[in-house]
Amino acid sequence: MSYRSGGSCPLETKFCSFDGALALTEGAAIAGYASLFGAADQGGDVVQAGAYSVSLRRLATAGSGVKMLWQHDPTKPIGVWDEVREDARGLYVKGRLLLDVQAGREAHVLMEAGAIDGLSIGYRTVRAEKTAGGRRLLHEIELWEVSLVTFPMLPEARVGADSVDLDPDLARTLAETFREARQMLA
């Protein structure tokens, strides 16, 4: 998990892609799960069922929506999420890449090639608790954005039904290596 300063409350991000559940269809349309309930990520966080409900209702009431970004970069919106909802499995998203935007075209090409296969949520924790085992159970989340990303936090998740299964231990090692490299460069 990474943190970004955003005034008084940090933006937290959670990376995941899901076992063929995210699909690029009909040109630039995409759909899949941005979060799975009850699944521990590499940072030890577990999103609980219902964690997004208050935030999604608030956004709907305000006539606002969850942003679609490229790699959590707020200067690179790449599309729109037409549908963002909770179901029994997790946070389902369905939207469209905007191909008139350069980063949207790039994301489209990379997804078609299988080079990008991850989703990541940008959020602020509203209510959470620590377990005796050190996990953080996220009970309420203020959802800000869902990004397409290169390295997801849930390594066992994949984009597209035809994707090659990556060994979870290798994926964790790669994610940790890139995390350390980012820290060294910062």
From TrEMBL:
SUPFAM superfamilies: Herpes virus serine proteinase, assemblin (SSF50789). One of its GO terms (biological process) is proteolysis. GO terms for molecular function: peptidase activity. It comes from the Bacteria. Keywords: Hydrolase, Protease, Viral release from host cell. Residues 27-162 form the Prohead serine protease domain. The keyword Hydrolase applies. This is Prohead serine protease domain-containing protein. The lineage of its organism: Bacteria, Pseudomonadati, Pseudomonadota, Alphaproteobacteria, Rhodobacterales.
